[in-house]
Amino acid sequence: MKITAVASGVSKLMVVAILAVTLCRAQQPVLSDPKPAASAKTDALTQTQGLLETGRYHEAESALRTYLAQNDGSAAGHAMLAYALLREDKPRESLEEYTRAAAIEKPSAQMLERVGQDYVLLADWQDAEKWTLRAVQMDPSDADAWYSLGRIRYTDQRFSDALSCFQQVLKLLPKSVKAENNLGLSYEGLNQVDQAVAAYQQAIAWQNEGPPEQRSAEPLLNLGIVLRHRSELAEAEPLLVEAATISPKNPRILEQLGQLHMQKADYVAARRELQQACALDPKNSALHFLLGQAYRHLGQMQEAKAEFYASERLAVATTQ
Fold first, then answer.
1. Which CATH class is domain 1-138?
2. Is the peptide bond before 248 cis (omega within 30 degrees of 0)?
3. d(Cα 269, Cα 259) in Å, to the nearest integer?
4. CA–CA distance, 125 with 58 (Å, rounded to integer)
5. How many CA atoms lie within 13 A of 102 on its CB side?
6. What pTM, to 2 d.p., does this model score?
């Protein structure tokens, strides 16, 4: 078993050697990552765990580096630092710390799932799947690992395999909104649109049973897109409006509202939504093109020309 060494300063041979030794030491305790464990060595780690749980990752990183300067042999410390770095979108540094943790204690299933997430951030889908699959093999009851594996396979357009993963999540976590939503996405990938609609509707029903502040815009957006493509605009619009209420700065939602208004020939409303979308995602060539269309329909030819030019320029830049 080995982790591919992508982090600078960590040689591939050293990583292989480290994990070959540590993974054979089955008598050693399994590392808990990043949840607090009863065997936490110091109050400092317990306090730092609180920073991780409240999303204060930069503070946690600073505290953990200070702690590890005096306690470099702490596997829990290195694993917690790795998690903080992962959440700060620093996958290479995170992998270095997971490698150090694995050199001290046998990796847990959760650690391997986190390693997989590092490789997702690096767009290394092969290693992402390898380590996430190893995590579910080590602990088949880990719903988070099954979900991560499903997302990796969905991104790789292996929709049937992704579907199976999300179904497994739902066995372990009934009424999981995000799993049901991704079930819908997988059905869409398989062109099973009616099943996708049913999944999105179920996800929305489940989240409506919970606290309003925990609602996700995603199933509303995804169902709204399907209905818009079916030209069921009266049904799609309130879903997209509700999604925008939950996530008002999501340019994808504003884009869909803009396109819906274009289908209704309400170009003033389309212009409004697409202007906001472009402001939030100014480097998106498709958004500028759509805004140009709205301007053209309104007879604002100079503005339309400027948006079409911006769209073309951005499209060329992305291909270079």
1. mainly alpha
2. no
3. 10
4. 27
5. 28
6. 0.81
